[in-house]
Design a protein that fits this description.
heterodimer, A: alpha+beta, Rossmann fold, OB fold (Dihydrolipoamide Acetyltransferase, E2P), 2 domains, six-stranded mixed sheet, five-stranded antiparallel sheet, about 25% helix, disordered C terminus, B: mainly alpha, MetI-like fold, two-stranded antiparallel sheet, 2 strands, about 70% helix, disordered N terminus
Chain lengths: ~375, ~300
């Protein structure tokens, strides 16, 4: 056992892993491969199966089918205590009857590692809590408990560290701070991190790779920028940030671009950014890539134009203003505009045209069902 | 006494209410009055009686107020075997009751946690004996264990018991009866502790390389200690003073007499009130000493 103590992060492979509970399928034949040393985020709304997936990797749930491999070893039938995996639990799950140091040293003592106290102290120093080693967990603040939970898991140098919404209970400021620290620690120790969260900003901020999960399967996986820039499904487009989505029959499709006929308007997207070229296609654009104009812009094949509409809502959010623009027969469009020191150029009720560059459009593989909007 | 609060996970002082209204003190008065009247008065009377000397008139059952400390020496010398037996029986019965009750409590509080129907049924079963008088239940066991009962005849026929052996009046019968009567008192507090046990802590233990035995030893059991302590106290204390089960009218004989039986005999039959009172005071003092030592040990020391 102590041989793999010094080992660094290892890769994780899930082979068509499946979990059925009475009456529903929580995880539906999921395939996933996480390279060693990566910070991987599993992002999805509550009930999407992400926590069940994490619990199966930890060994706390038994998969109905499929295999789990860590560093190439099949651990599917191993008990939780036999797996080279540690978890930072959502509620921290610190042992209330032990001191902070005893909590951190617990795993080391079970594995009979030399000098558990010293190692526990070193781990507490890493999270800057060495002065609280003798306290009981209940005497610490939420943020401090969170760090103890992290130290308790990290001190074992697991091949894979699982984080189950570990920042969910912290306030915004502390959460941002812990995100930075977590990322720094991950780079420092070089372990593989699997982070489960429903907070898209947290996932994009910290992870090298994000997998968006919905209804027990992965909708899309990739680097945060790629995922945000080129969402493939309506769910991803709306769960990861916001999107304006328009559905229409394909009007023209060639090697360069695809255009749909959206209620009489021609909306185009680059061919490289569309998933589907036949029948009904959904074309989307991010609100911050969209702008509005008091006059109708000159017609340009490189620009998509919709109008005329009315501004129905203006919301000030600090760094940007959010505008809701209602266009008759078309629907609502959201536009974000940076607050760069100018006073609002338009007022509520003003009549405007909306436009965006064709190169910013993306085409989806599916059509929005309306369900995404109610998703968390 | 709030036994539940005595365990190692007693909440830290930070939860103290910030304001202590005068109303709370007034609300306390009836309780204090009740305790003063019905606990302190008899206690005082008991101590007074335990120091009385035989009446100068020589009438049996008549005693004069005195300071006869020798009553205690006499009681101790005369009834040492019964005193020793009481505490031995109480200890053995408590240990057996714990061994029997813990798995029951664990099953109801942990295994059946998400099955309300099963849990409700099992809890009812644990409490069910209370629906019938304890005297009747003990009497029922006397019937079952009596010499020509169906059980004994069968055991003798099968050869598991000698033809002229018996159960009633033996240490076995008394300890069995004591365990039987006190299992609910042991089970319920342990169940209350285990029912509150956060199973995520058990999962955290497994995640940190502890197998199921270690997880139980280091996490589940220590966290259920408040219940175990309450349960053992609620069992040990009443058993030490029990006089029903060990009495000759029930499962015992003169060979199994406990302090309770001796006190009863001295009070009601021999009418030696000072000795009976001295024995009662001794029993009380011994229990207070044993229990406070036990609580202190389990409360401050980090067990296991």
């Amino acid at each position: 056992m102590s041989a793999d103590f010094v080992a660094g992060g290892q890769d994780l492979e899930l082979e068509s892993i499946r979990k059925e509970f009475p009456g529903f399928v929580a995880v539906d034949d999921l395939d996933l491969k996480i390279p060693a040393g990566e910070f991987f985020a599993l992002l999805g709304p509550s009930g999407c199966g992400k926590t069940t997936t994490l619990r199966m990797i930890a060994g706390l749930e038994t998969p109905s089918a499929g295999r789990i491999l860590i560093g190439g070893n099949d651990v599917t039938d191993q008990k939780p205590h036999q797996r080279p995996v540690n978890t930072v639990f959502q509620n921290y799950a610190l042992f209330p009857h032990m001191s902070v140091e005893e909590n951190v040293a617990f795993g080391l003592k079970q594995r009979k590692v030399d000098n558990p106290q010293q190692r526990a102290q070193a781990a507490l120093e890493m999270v800057e809590l060495q002065h609280l080693a003798a306290r009981r967990p209940q005497q610490l603040s939420g943020g401090q408990q969170q760090r103890v939970a992290l130290a308790r898991a990290l001190v074992n140098r697991p091949a894979l560290l699982l984080l189950d919404e570990p920042l969910g209970a912290l306030d915004l400021k502390l959460r941002r701070q812990m995100q930075i620290e977590l990322k720094a620690i991950q780079m420092e120790v070089g372990l593989t991190f699997l982070h489960v969260t429903h907070d898209q900003e947290e996932a994009m901020d910290m992870a090298d790779t994000v997998a968006v999960m919905n209804h027990g399967h992965i909708e899309q996986m990739g680097a945060p920028e790629a995922l945000y820039d080129r969402p493939k499904t309506a769910f991803v487009a709306r769960f990861l940030g916001q999107s304006n989505i328009f559905v229409g029959e394909v009007a023209e499709a060639d090697d360069a671009k695809l255009a749909i006929n959206f209620k009489g308007n021609r909306l185009a997207a680059p061919a490289a950014r569309v998933q589907k070229t036949k029948g009904k296609v959904a074309i989307g654009v991010r609100p911050e890539k969209t702008s509005f104009h008091p006059e109708k812009p000159a017609s340009d094949p490189a620009v998509n134009i919709l109008g005329r509409g009315t501004i129905t809502d203006i919301r000030f959010t600090g760094v940007s203003n959010q505008y809701q623009i209602e266009i008759p027969e078309v629907g609502e469009i959201t536009v974000f505009a940076q607050n760069v020191g100018k006073s609002p150029v338009v007022e509520l009720g003003a009549e405007v045209w909306v436009s965006w560059k064709v190169e910013h459009s993306f085409g989806l593989a599916d059509l929005p069902t309306g369900e995404e909007e109610v998703a968390e | 006494m709030a036994f539940v609060a005595l365990g190692p996970q007693a909440p830290v002082a930070s939860q103290k209410p910030t304001k202590t209204g005068r109303v709370a003190l007034y609300l306390l008065l009836p309780g204090l009055f009740y305790l003063g009247l019905f606990f302190l008065t008899p206690l005082f009377s008991l101590i007074l009686t335990s120091l009385k000397a035989p009446s100068a008139t020589g009438v049996i059952g008549r005693y004069d107020v005195a300071l006869e400390i020798g009553n205690y020496g006499y009681a101790l010398g005369q009834y040492a075997p019964q005193i020793f037996r009481s505490f031995s029986f109480a200890l053995i019965a408590t240990v057996i009751a714990l061994a029997v009750s813990y798995p029951i409590a664990y099953f109801i509080g942990v295994t059946a946690r998400n099955r309300p129907l099963l849990k409700g049924m099992l809890l009812t079963l644990v409490i069910a004996p209370f629906f019938i008088s304890m005297l009747l239940r003990t009497f029922a066991w006397k019937q079952i264990f009596s010499n020509d009962s169906w059980l004994l005849n069968t055991l003798k026929d099968v050869g598991l018991m000698g033809a002229d052996s018996y159960i009633i009046g033996t240490d076995f019968a008394v300890i069995f009866g004591l365990v039987y009567n006190f299992i609910p008192f042991m089970t319920l507090p342990i169940y209350a502790s285990l029912d509150r046990l956060d199973l995520r802590l058990v999962e955290a233990g497994q995640d940190l390389y502890a197998n199921s035995v270690t997880t139980f030893r280091k996490i589940t059991f220590p966290l259920s200690l408040p219940g175990v302590i309450s349960g053992t106290l609620l069992t040990f204390i009443p058993i030490s003073g029990d006089y029903v089960v060990a009495s000759r009218d029930f499962l015992g004989s003169t060979d199994t007499a406990m302090i309770g039986n001796v006190v009863e005999a001295n009070f009601l039959r021999i009418q030696d009130y000072p000795t009976a009172s001295a024995l009662s005071v001794l029993l009380m003092a011994a229990i207070v000493i044993l229990v406070s030592a036990y609580v202190r040990r389990s409360g401050t020391e980090d067990l296991l």
